[in-house]
Amino acid sequence: MSSSRLQHRQKRWLRLSASCSKPSNSTSSRCTERRRTEKAGPGPGGQLLSMASLGGLVPPDDDNGTTYLVDERWSALRDIGTASGWLVDPAEVTIGAELGQGSFGTTFRGSWRGGDLAVKRVRISKPEEATSFLREVSSLACLRHPNIMPFIGACLMPPQHCYLLCEYLPGGTLTNWLHGNRRQGGRGAPKRALADKIRMALGVARGMQALEEAQPPILHRDLKASNVFLDAGGHPRVADMGLSRRWEPESAASLTGETGTYHYMAPEVIRHEMYDSRADVYSWGVLFAEILQQQFPYEGLYCTPVQCAMAVGDDKLRPTIPSDTPQALVAVAGACFEPEPAMRPSFGVIVHRLSTFLSSLRSSPGGSGGGSSADSTASIKRMFGWGGAGANAGDTTPSPTKRSPGTAAVNGHS
């Protein structure tokens, strides 16, 4: 298939996906319009084959509210999958032992055509689950990056055979690496060296840079430690794109507030304001603080996730940073916590600064230097345009600056 035809199909998918950003129960909705027959040639007796008889997708009568299983998004994404070579027949997939459960499905060890892989199985029982699954497949299918979960293929036969096939990553999650089984009453993880922590945070930032610089940009909207997996070499891979959205100016107003996980959520998302990729930067900042501390966000505050989120939305709460953290890293974290999204750095800037810091850490005597000098800290603050938190050596809780009245909540990607 020519690249122009594939691009046409991708644009069709994007148009249909955007039109379905707010599921509707209306039978006139374009998203949920039922296609009762598919002109795939005559079946037995000469009649046209229905969608149900072709794939067992829905019962003949769709009055039970299952039209979201056969709307145009499925066929559009199948077309892309067929043209790109990643659409998989579920009969070729073998499901093995369960690896874990997440917000949007259960992951199993599996195999396909002799290859070992991870199979995420999603049960589609309502429109929101269909939308989440389709978005995750669409996002991963267009990304190829060393710090993104390696996508192999997908099965698109709802409601029973919705599989996401990815490379099996045996290193567990970043949550395991940071905390062990402490939350389940088990042993915690060993104390990690600063250089290892920076390498982990840097790898996640690189994966997020790939999303930020995609065309159009992809918002993850649920970045957290449990959504980062480690490969056999211990390298982080950003995963779980179930809440991801492509960001375009015309669709910015349709982005849903309070999307994601409260402890990692940006203040503008909590306040139901418009937002862009800088909301992911804030989430990365929370994760960065978690990596530096090796403690769960806001651990020890004895408040519920909702209470923490409300305090963050009121610009009264930010994660704390260990007191022995080099000031250059305190500056990086503080820049990510800026109340005004436009004041936060891009992931490209974060990657550059962490790479520079890690190089200086390696070259310093004893491997512990870099980032502690006043000149290094001032340089980073000038780069970020940030002069709040971390100005004093003893200030390890980045403090949000006052929001300017009337300032727009969303700014362009700079």
UniProtKB/TrEMBL annotation:
Domain of life: Eukaryota
Pfam families xref list: PK_Tyr_Ser-Thr
Record has ATP-binding as a keyword: yes
Keywords, ordered alphabetically: ATP-binding, Kinase, Nucleotide-binding, Serine/threonine-protein kinase, Transferase
Protein kinase domain span: 93-358
Biased composition (Polar residues): 394-404
Region (Disordered) location: 17-49, 389-414
Coiled coil: none
Residue ranges crossing the lipid bilayer per the database entry: none
Signal peptide coordinates: none
InterPro entries: Kinase-like_dom_sf, Prot_kinase_dom, Protein_kinase_ATP_BS, Ser-Thr/Tyr_kinase_cat_dom, Ser/Thr_kinase_AS, Ser/Thr_Kinases-Pseudokinases
GO MF annotation, one: protein serine/threonine kinase activity
Residues the record lists as binding ATP: K120
Family, per entry: Belongs to the protein kinase superfamily.
The protein's name in its UniProt record: Protein kinase domain-containing protein
Natural source organism: Symbiochloris irregularis
Lineage per the UniProt record: Eukaryota, Viridiplantae, Chlorophyta, core chlorophytes, Trebouxiophyceae
